[in-house]
Structure prediction request, 334 residues.
Amino acid sequence: MFGIEMGVLITLLLKNQIYVMYLVFVMLIAGITKKYNLFSDFFGFINTKIKSKKLIIFLTSMVSGMMPVPGRVTVTAGLLDNIAPSREDNPKKRAKFGIIDYLSTHHYYLWSPLEKSIIIPMAALGLTYSALMSIIWPLLLVTVIIVAGYIIYFVKEEDIIFENIKKDYSITNLIKNVFPFFTGIGFLIAGFNPALVFGVVFAYYFAFNRINWKETYEFINFKLVFALMGIIGLTNIIKANTVVITNYVITLGLTMDTLFGFGAISLVAFVSAFLMGSSSRYAGIVALLSTTFGIQYLVYFIAVEFSAYLVSPFHKCFMIGKMYFGTPKKNIIR
Prediction:
């Protein structure tokens, strides 16, 4: 492959594979926290201390959106379902909560260290979490502003009804269930090895909750693990052959420096993410494009792929919003 000797090829394929362990530990933590509902007291704390209903919605949706659990849009839908008007009483007001759920459970693609769309670019481009965030923070800022703006201007205090949502919390549970998780994120932001940090966090949750080893098997998405291994290996090979690849794409006119190349590359990026409707797949495309054409285009590729993913008809979150809140797809796309 590209005239690389077998020994060099093996070295390239194995380089940076520590990020695979990082992903595995994330999956294990996600499985444990979901199964044992370890974050319920944290939401109870928010709802007890904050007086403004709008602010409670904003904080609850933002925090629940980054919980280390798969299918977070379903989790937050269940939470917001408790404070939304009933379908019978006011379906129009209730539909607003589908948009809140959708917006608040997708910001984490741009910052959560537990999310594939962050882990894959980190692994492929050899970036620390802090380095990646220093590049893509403008996209996150815009997303947060949109979420906050929608809640402030389109949701009224009288639209929010608190009935079944948890209104109490235990300090002991906050310390033993939530503190280790956020401590791990703090160490990650500080630049510590992500696999080591979340390995320790997993070991804590595993021991404290007396998890059976057989139980952990069901928490791991092996298909995604092997996909990440392949993406890391492929990007390492691309990096080692940047000159050859660059010269080849130039002969095809596919460079970001020409109008044709810029348009063609952008179209391929958007259409591929739109058709696949998968965060892990679009993150892999972002990694490959950024490796091929340069990290200076990372923010642009993320913006294009993320936008296509959000409006993809194959994105399961559309159906979840409609199922819970009766929110039309056209309202979410707008």
